[in-house]
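TEACHING EXERCISE
Course module: macromolecular assemblies
Task: Read the component lines below, then compare them to the predicted structure of the full complex.
Student: A.B.
Group: 4
Components provided:
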Amino acid sequence: SAVISQKPSRDICQRGTSLTIQCQVDSQVTMMFWYRQQPGQSLTLIATANQGSEATYESGFVIDKFPISRPNLTFSTLTVSNMSPEDSSIYLCSVESGADEKLFFGSGTQLSVL
Amino acid sequence: GENVEQHPSTLSVQEGDSAVIKCTYSDSASNYFPWYKQELGKGPQLIIDIRSNVGEKKDQRIAVTLNKTAKHFSLHITETQPEDSAVYFCAASIKNSGYALNFGKGTSLLVTP
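Instructor-supplied answer key:
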């Protein structure tokens, strides 16, 4: 399976600021996804990060709030912009392992917004 | 969006007993059904998965069954151990989204010695 490194692992931020989360994979992958997990809740897909084109956002998520970069096949970033306490969540990067056709997750970024 | 329903939300079993978690899905185009285990402070870990061309899959103490006609699938853990205690999530693939998934709300499993 792919090894996924996500950072920061946690952060405490002030409202109105922005945080960029990085996701690095140890192999080239076609599909990368960003999920949000609110406290005690399930995982919700934010967007699919496409290499060479704009990310595809799910209903309820917009590019201005969650801009995503995918400069190559091993790296992606998610920015949480103009944060409010409601953005306090775990943000998870996931990748599809092409050989196994399975979805694997990073360890997540625990974000707290004061 | 399409929903995945998961039951129960909490489950407590004695060590050595079996645990069963059930999920239903609504998108008839879903064809991939993984199960994840999430321990506190960690990301979800894939433990087993099944595709719509099979009805059952087993890996040591863990098994998954799929009934595509009824749109439900289940996770079975036998001979449970305290280290099985975690939150378990079922998921179903999202139509036309590659391997993006819709997740159930999770089951908090507690295995008591």
